[in-house]
Amino acid sequence: MQGIHISAMGCYLPAQVVKNQDFERLVETSDEWIVSHTGVRERRVSSGEPTWWMGVLAARDALERGKIDAASIDLILFTTVTPEYYTPALACIAQAHLGAHNAFALDLNCACSGFVAALDMARRYLYTGGVDRVLIISAERLSAITDYTDRSTCVLFGDGASACVVERGEGLYSSHLSADGMGASSLYAAHGEPAENPFADPALAPEMPEIFQGEKLHMNGREVYRFATKTMAQEVRAACFQAGIEVEEIDLVIPHQANVRIVETAMKLLGLPMERAYLNLEQLGNTSSASIPLAMDEALQKGEIQPGMLVCAVGFGAGLTSGAVLLRWE
């Protein structure tokens, strides 16, 4: 069985805690409304820490806890939707600060599905030769793109980072990844205006479709909710089908921490009790690609993940993207 072994995990959370009541001076909302509609009570927000630095600190934590030499890392995958640079990749910046000088490094943008996609990509590299250890870093500074005048979205998001080291394992593994670009306009944040091009001639530009604009995060809540509840259940079922097992055999589902109502609906569609879903969004909110590994690390530290358990990580987000990874924990 070409499985994987997560040999170490780490995290970094900004010190700044923003509670629901803090939003009452910004927008028309209340703690009661936020909790009842999202399940979130508080979230962490960067006080200046950039995405790349939060990622480095999470990676250092993972390497220290796992007693792993950075020089033994062969590949760094950095998942984020909030990079500080067009180039270089944040993975390259992290490589330098970690001393992982033997690692190839690249960034991955699959939004809230990013960790699941990176985990699956790591496995594929591990079994195609030349790579024995992969460091996945998932870091997000969503406060940098949040519209704090939009009460429907600003209360959802938080900042943070998590990291893990992945190696070849012996246990069961399966995955299923999907994308639906037709829904791209449902959830997006555009780059700022490009630098002025002195040679551009608008008359020579080809006709093109009108595309969505706006540097702050925009979300069509109704469309995203419909997509997320349906696709979460579909991805879990597809991963189980690939593995030849029944959904009921899953011991723990670690979903993207988007909204408690999304998770409740999806778990009901799967026929699984909520007790089998691990949630920490009440304290951290939606941290995009960092949400699943942050929850996974917390569950591991609390002893809620044990060797032999069948664990399913499932993500869904902008793109639209989605995916699930099913693994026997070693």
Describe what you observe in this structure.
The protein has 2 domains: 3-170, Thiolase/Chalcone synthase (Peroxisomal Thiolase, Chain A, domain 1), CATH 3.40.47; 174-185 and 214-328, Peroxisomal Thiolase, Chain A, domain 1. The chain has 8 helices and 13 strands. It has helices at residues 31-38, 51-65, 90-98, 114-126, 221-243, 260-270, 281-284, 291-301; strands spanning 3-12, 17-19, 42-44, 75-79, 104-108, 134-141, 159-169, 173-179, 187-188, 218-219, 252-255, 310-317, 321-328. α2 (51-65) crosses α3 (90-98) and α5 (221-243) packs parallel to α6 (260-270). It catalyses: malonyl-[ACP] + acetyl-CoA + H(+) = 3-oxobutanoyl-[ACP] + CO2 + CoA. Pathway: Lipid metabolism; fatty acid biosynthesis.
Element layout with pairings:
Blueprint: E1 3-12, E2 17-19, H1 31-38, E3 42-44, H2 51-65, E4 75-79, H3 90-98, E5 104-108, H4 114-126, E6 134-141, E7 159-169, E8 173-179, E9 187-188, E10 218-219, H5 221-243, E11 252-255, H6 260-270, H7 281-284, H8 291-301, E12 310-317, E13 321-328
Parallel strand pairs: 4-5, 4-6, 11-12
Antiparallel strand pairs: 1-7, 2-3, 6-7, 8-13, 9-10, 12-13
